[in-house]
Structures are given as C-alpha cells and as structure tokens.
Amino acid sequence: MSSDMTLYWGSGSIPCWRVMICLVEKELSDYNSKLVSFEKKEQKSDEIMKINPRGQVPAFKHGNVVVNESMAICLYLENTFKNQGTQLLPDDPSQQALVLQRFMETQNIMDKAKALFFHRFRTKQEDWDQVYIGEKIKALAEELPLWENYLSQYGEGSFITGKDFTLADASLVPALAYLMRMKLPMKERFPCLASYYERVSDRPSVQSGWPPHWKDTPGYDYLKDV
Ligand SMILES: N[C@@H](CCC(=O)N[C@@H](CS)C(=O)NCC(=O)O)C(=O)O
C-alpha cells in the first residue's frame, strides 16, 4: 500500500526521478505525488523543511518514516517491499555487490555533468570559463567509456549489471537522459549506451518520472563536443 507515502519532487531533478522509477518498479505508484516549483523555491517551504531541513527534494515520507537522500529512499523501498514488484537488488552476494557498485557509481556521471551544466547555466555566456569547461568536458569524455565498456560485456537487450533491471538502471537511465538533454552525441560516440538508453527509456517506470518541462523545451547543446 502506497497511499501512506508522500514524495515531494521537482521537474528535472535526477535524484527525484530515480526514486520515482523505484516506486513504480515496486508497484507503489499510488503514492502522494507533490510536485514543487524550484522557481518559486517551494522546496524551502515549511512543509518540506519539516521533513528535510536541507530544503531539497526528493523529500519522502512513508507513515512516520522519513528518508530524503534519493539513494537511501531507493534502498529503503527495495528492503521494505522486497517481495513486491521488480527485485531491484539481487540476493546473490557477488551480484548484489555489482549492483550496489554501479548504483553508487552513477553519481560520478552526475557530478561531472552537473558541474558543467551549472557553470554554463548560471554564468553569463561572456563570463564562461573555457578552461573549466574544457576540463569538465574531458572528465565526462573519460567517464562515459567506462559505462560503454560495462555494457559491452553483456549481450543486446541487457541491463547495466546483466540480464535484470536493478537499482543501478534506475539511477543510470535518468543520468543518461540528462546527458541527452545536453545533446551528447551518444549514438555516434557510445553505441552500446545509446541502444541501452533507447530501450530502457521506454520502460513505464522511466516514462512515469520523465520531467514534465523537458517534454516541451529543447534542452542545451552543452555536450555536443564530448
Ligand atoms: N544528495 C541528494 C541531492 C538532492 C538535491 O540536490 N536536490 C536538488 C534537486 S536535484 C534540490 O532540491 N535543489 C534545490 C535546492 O537545493 O534548493 C539526493 O540524492 O537526494
């Protein structure tokens, strides 16, 4: 039962999206969904500050249980509803270690992409620091081949840790969507990632969390040279 769950989320937030994917995968789709406006700074409202004193989303409540860090929420959902919906964390210790490793490792993609995005987005174009931008593009250009290589070990139709969709995929797909929104030439540069992305992004859980404002806005060409 998920009617006693509330998720505060923001459009375009990758941490929120990974939680939304897990909620749907765990058959908990009828949670109370509260979309907050970053423009209006609603994440700093009393209602959210009471739950998450950082004034950030995701902010998540299940009955009296509060968990806010997105990866902690995903793990909480999997542990609490282990036998419901998609099993997102395998029982086998070595496979579990791999899933946890890849799940946490997706943060590397986001840290590098966000550094670039926020510098360009928040700075006037005439003040862009081209050295900094060059370093961040290089960092991403070095990060993504690792993921291309992880995927290339498995056959067509696989997920990031093998034959099953797991926590690692719930975190990787939104990160790739973020790169695509910044016009990464994924198909040309990373063919395994591109075919994975095309397939997995059609999954209903992924579609359910697609940032509403992305559907009618074009994105940014910040990664076209990676
Ligand atoms: N480590 C946190 C990051 C949360 C986070 O950075 N949330 C952003 C949206 S992606 C936010 O609420 N930003 C608004 C703010 O900081 O005021 C998680 O994974 O849940």
From TrEMBL:
Superkingdom of source: Eukaryota
Residues in GST C-terminal domain copies: 92-219
GO cellular component: cytoplasm
Biological processes annotated in GO: glutathione metabolic process
GO molecular function annotation: glutathione binding; glutathione transferase activity
SUPFAM superfamilies for this protein: GST C-terminal domain-like (SSF47616), Thioredoxin-like (SSF52833)
Domain GST N-terminal, residue spans: 3-85
InterPro entries for the chain: Glutathione-S-Trfase_C-like, Glutathione-S-Trfase_C_sf, Glutathione_S-Trfase, Glutathione_S-Trfase_N, GST_C, Thioredoxin-like_sf
Assigned protein family: Belongs to the GST superfamily.
Protein name: Glutathione S-transferase A-like
